[in-house]
Amino acid sequence: MFEFCADPKNIEGLQWWSCYLSSGKHMGFYLSFVTVLALLFVTTPFILLLGFSGALARRTKFPPVRWLGIAYTSIVRGVPDIIFFLFALIAMDQGIEYLRHITLCPEVTAPVRQGNDFIVCAKAKMPLSTAPPWAHKAYAFFQASVAFAVVFGAFAANTLYGALAAVPAAQLETAAAFGMSPRQIFRRIHLPQMWVYALPGLSNLWMIFIKATPLLFLLGIQDIVYWARELGGTKTAIFSYPHADWRLGYFAFLLVFYLFMTWISEKAFAALTVKVSKGQATVGGTV
Description:
Blueprint lengths: L12 H9 L2 H36 L3 H16 L2 H24 L8 E2 L2 E2 L14 H34 L2 H9 L4 H31 L2 H4 L5 H9 L14 H31 L3 E2 L2 E2 L1
Antiparallel strand pairs: 1-2, 3-4
Helix pairs in contact: 2-3, 2-5, 2-9, 3-5, 4-5, 5-7, 6-7, 7-10, 9-10
């Protein structure tokens, strides 16, 4: 970045540190924090969408839909996260490529499953081998976002299902007695009341989601854990910036980052709890 960084071996002190911390790999390290934050804020709406869908499916009186909601929440919650992540990524990747294969290459009659190999035509690859590097990264991020949304959506569905069931039936019956339609009751009474019971569980789920972001490293994405291990490892004289094993320092920095995220989240959920509790009857009286 700086002109004096052309030959790192001839600089020392603050100049060495300024060059080291502004190197290309460190820029990748800084951008990896954006990747983690993007995963959190891009995936959360889909988690809530799947959560509400699963919760409402479990409450419906139509048996097939109810069974589907129960199966979704039970199966996903019962499988270890890392196993589901890896399975979902492989299944999703092969499923997309298979659909592209039968659509784009109808002339190929050989089976795609040949022993232990999964072979599709070149045009069916996702992304294409000629695609730029950013396309490969975006596709990997998309897959990871879907996997996280499906897993945490199941937990959110269970939380929201319990919250919907916790709203006092007397309030819903009173609304019906005043002539409200089922849709009006849900939108004006049931949904606002539900958040009081849902927020504690959703706040815990959000904290777990934050702590699960290092799984991006296991999913092949260059996240903050990947770069901390890469940059902190011992670098010999063959590297531009040789140094000893500094992984402890890098991971200590990640510890501070995650603690800061936790602190900010606690403050945000505390404010949300106060907001949704206004006018609600609690043990201590009306808030």
